[in-house]
Design a protein that fits this description.
Blueprint lengths: L5 H4 L4 E3 L2 E17 L5 E18 L2 E6 L1 H27 L1
Antiparallel strand pairs: 1-2, 2-3, 3-4
Length: about 100
């Protein structure tokens, strides 16, 4: 199970030219099972890993560089949901 923990979200440091890069991701896993009588049973699991960015060590200083593609992929649905919620609040306030 160690592959589902920290080792999966923070990768091994890699050397790129003079820089050392450590990738960072968020990892989500889920498992479930159930039954509905004698012959109806099932179970399964799944996982998702989203690369957030990397810690970059350059000239002795470490800083985080975000993955802009992942940021946009998360921001678009978040903005949409927030907009829908605000629209509902405004409509309710008008009544």
């Amino acid at each position: 199970m160690s592959t589902l923990g920290v080792k999966n979200t923070i990768g091994e440091p890699q050397r790129l030219a003079a820089d050392e890069v450590t990738p960072v991701a968020v990892s989500i896993t889920g498992f479930g099972g159930g039954s509905a009588g004698e012959l109806h049973e099932g179970g399964g699991g799944g996982g998702l890993s989203v690369p957030l960015g990397a810690y970059v060590q350059r000239h002795g200083a470490v800083h985080f560089e975000p993955n802009t593609v992942a940021l946009v992929a998360v921001a678009i649905p978040l903005v949409w949901v927030t907009g829908r919620a605000l629209r509902g609040v405004v409509r309710a306030a008008k009544k």
